[in-house]
Amino acid sequence: MDAKSPTSWNPVSKGLHWLIALLLVAVWGAMELHEFYTKGDPMREWWKMLHFSLGLTVLVLMVLRFYWRATHPRPTPIGAGWQQRLSSLVHGLLYLVVIGMPLGGFSVRQFAGKPVEVYGLFTLPQLTPVNHELAESIEFLHTEVFWYLLLGLVGLHVAGALWHQFVDRDSTLKRMLPGG
Prior knowledge:
Helix content is 71%, strand content 3%. The protein is built from 5 helices and 2 strands, in the order αααββαα. The protein has a two-stranded antiparallel ribbon. The longest helix has 37 residues. The chain is elongated and about 55 Å long. The protein starts with 10 loop residues before the first helix and ends with a helix.
């Protein structure tokens, strides 16, 4: 291990990791909860607005996370070479999907000509011409491809953490836990 490499993730990296994880659950929950209301019900629209707002928050935090990761040292990876390569692949794909989901959702709203209200505070400007066919195609990717890809990648991520904890019995999981 490099003498300058930290043994654990720094508190900001940990905080961003867990905050984004919690927000992803909230994004999903907001979209599911809107289904309990009929079209035209203000609560249905409120849950959808919250879904979009939380998604954009995830996007902003992911940009911050990329910056932080690029400017702060990472702990030396633990595990066999194949585990490190698989981890890098899963993390890279997770980052792409977590960035792609809010960009896709934003694009759907833009191309559909629908407003993107952020936390009820302001509305983002319309930046694209309306193109309903393109909106439908992106929505398919957003809901039927990226969503299931995200679930699979999160499952692999969690399985990897549990593998390290209970099979390899190393400190991989501990290094990312708050206070660990």
